[in-house]
Amino acid sequence: MEYLAQNSVILFLIVVYVAACLGIGWWFKKKASEGVSEYYIAKREIPGWVVSLAFFSTFISTNTYIGQAGKAFQTGLCWAWVGVFWTVFCMISWLLLGPRMRKQTASLNSVTIPDYFDYRYKSSLSRVMRAFAAFIIIFATLWYMVGIAKGCAHLLDSVLGLPYAWGAFLIIFITAAYTVWGGMYSVLWTDAVQGLMMFFVAIIMVVLPAIYVGGWDTLMNAVSYTTHVTRAGKPMGDGLVTFCSLVSFLYILGIGLSVGMKQIAEPRCLIRFYSIDNAKSMRFAMIWTPIFLGVSLICVMGLGALVHGMATEQEAAYLVKHTDEVIGFMLAKFNNPWISGICLAGLFAAGMSSLASVMLIVGTAFIGDIWNLYRPMAPAQVVNRTKVTILLYCFAVFILTVYPPMGIVELTAFSGAVFAASFFPAIFGGLYLRWGTGHGAFWSMIIGIATCLIYRFGFRFNYPGLKDVHEIIPAFVISLLVYFVISAATQGKRPEEAHLNRIFGS
Q1: Residues contacting residue 134 through CB under 8 Å, at least 6 positions apart
Q2: Which of 34, 166, 444, 458 is buried most, with the most CB atoms less than 10 Å from its CB?
Q3: CB 65 within 8 A of CB 353
């Protein structure tokens, strides 16, 4: 009873928020069950403002609010360069990929990213490429989901004292419930609500350190002349406000590229383009999505370094080695139940929005692009088995979250590197290059994921000079070259001109 009395406000706000998400999922349950198109892509009838907020909330996950803010605590304000990369790639995604992907996938009747590869390239390798693309989605998404659940679990532990494993279980399976019920309809509409919450929570959180210490002047003085030490035990000094004093720019570049390029290669982002209703909505989303993203990232990236103003030397020495706990520390230190409740609900929203999107993507990949490809089934079976797959996959995510292999930022960046290296050449080539072939796309996927794995586990951490060179850099370059070279060498295996004219116009 004492626990409930102490945390009543926070618990009330969280329960109201979770109930609203579950209610939206239940509301769309019947509509989403009408068919595969309804469940997978919401029948391509979602307004632009909903898709814009959904894209933003999906990409700005708990990994961003907790993981990136924690890295800024460790590395200083130069970590904001990661946010710059994100915003730039967001603009690239909406300007270069969005309109063409919406048009081409509609003309091909595509409902997933792997089946787009199949229908677009139409080669002897198309079916194998589709199944392999689905495998990549299942593999890479696992690490991303673990990162999200890990961040939410740490937060619940810091603010509410909820055991880590219980927090991970709740965030995973509450999200799974409304995703399974309402499919893409509930995912997009809940994401829109969550996006609004996340946007305002980012603005609220960035001012909390200033309020805590008594004003911006006091806070900036504390941050600029901190006596805190780095992870290695050396004084930070003014490294918090100078350029890359505490971390290599190569490392920032690698992380920035991997998480930024996720937007132009990751299915959970790209599938948003499938669902938008018309060109006017697309133009609206092109403008507003980067604005939502950019403002939020400025707040979050700045927040991490500012938390130093709230911490003692002993607290900072702990947090610089446990960066995933920085935001939880800040909310616990501020100690206002209403503020903590609102922020916790917003951070919950960040986690749930991203989890919901990737859960659906994984389900569609396994059932729609592997099982149904080789053993066709009725549409009703496709939807039902997708739901079962989502639930089973969530158990695997939960187990790995309890025993996470790495920190939030590295989990996110590794997932992004795999997607960017494996998918971007095939996606960009499919949308823009008539001469791109299925053989080029297929082998770029294989070489892309292989380079990521070999470089990360065989070279990066075994040679000191390569530690800050993220796997995205060599993997992406090599994958892109493979696409160009093999496509050029297999021009005789291009789809028929009539098919290409249907896609690109005569």
Answers
A1: 112, 114, 365, 366, 368, 369, 370
A2: 444
A3: no
**250: exposed, middle or buried (C-beta count within 10 Å: 0-12, 13-18, 19+)?**
middle
Q: With b meaning 16 or more CB within 10 Å and e meaning fewer, what string describes 275-296?
A: bbbeeebbebbbebbbebbbeb
Half-sphere exposure at residue 191, Cβ-oriented, CA atoms within 13 angstroms: 33
454: pLDDT strictly greater than 90: yes
Give me the sign of the Cα torsion angle 202, 205, 211, 217. Answer: negative
Q: Which residue range(s) make up the domain with 287?
A: 2-504
Type of residue found at 359:
M
**Residue 262 phi/psi, 5° resolution?**
-55, -35
- At 46, phi and psi to the nearest 5? -95, 130
Contact 193, 24 (CB under 8 A): yes
Nearest CA to 109 out of 30, 41, 54 is that of 41
Is residue 269 within 8 A of residue 427, CB to CB? The reply is: no
Distance CA 419, CA 457 (A): 17
Taking the C-alpha atoms of residue 280 and residue 273, their distance in angstroms, rounded to an integer, is 13
Question: What pTM does this model have?
Answer: 0.81
Q: What is the CATH number of the domain that holds 300?
A: 1.20.1730.10
Q: What confidence tens digit (pLDDT) does each residue in 31-65 have?
A: 666 666 667 666 666 777 777 777 777 767 666 77
| 59 vs 365, higher pLDDT | 365
Which two tokens mark 25? 């999922």
Lowest mean pLDDT among 47-56, 121-130, 291-300, 375-384: 47-56
pLDDT (tens digit per residue) in 332-345: 888 888 887 788 77
- What token pair was written down for 214? 């008594």
- What are the structure tokens assigned to 287, written together? 């403008």
- Residue 465 neighbours by CB under 8 Å, 6+ apart: none
The domain tally of the chain equals: 1
Residue type, 109: N
- Sign, CA torsion 374/383/145/173: negative
| pLDDT category of residue 393 using cuts at 50, 70 and 90 | very high
- What backbone phi and psi angles, to 5 degrees, belong to 265? -145, -10
If one counts every other C-beta atom within 10 angstroms of the C-beta of residue 23, the result is 12
Q: Residue 124, Cβ neighbours under 10 Å: how many?
A: 12
296 closest CA partner among 59, 10, 14: 59
Q: Output the furthest CA–CA distance in the chain (Å, rounded).
A: 74
Contacts of 191 (CB under 8 A, 6+ apart): 50, 53, 54, 57, 58, 353, 356, 357
Closest CA to 112 of 361, 393, 416, 428: 361
Cα–Cα distance measured from residue 370 to residue 349, given in angstroms and rounded to the nearest whole number: 31
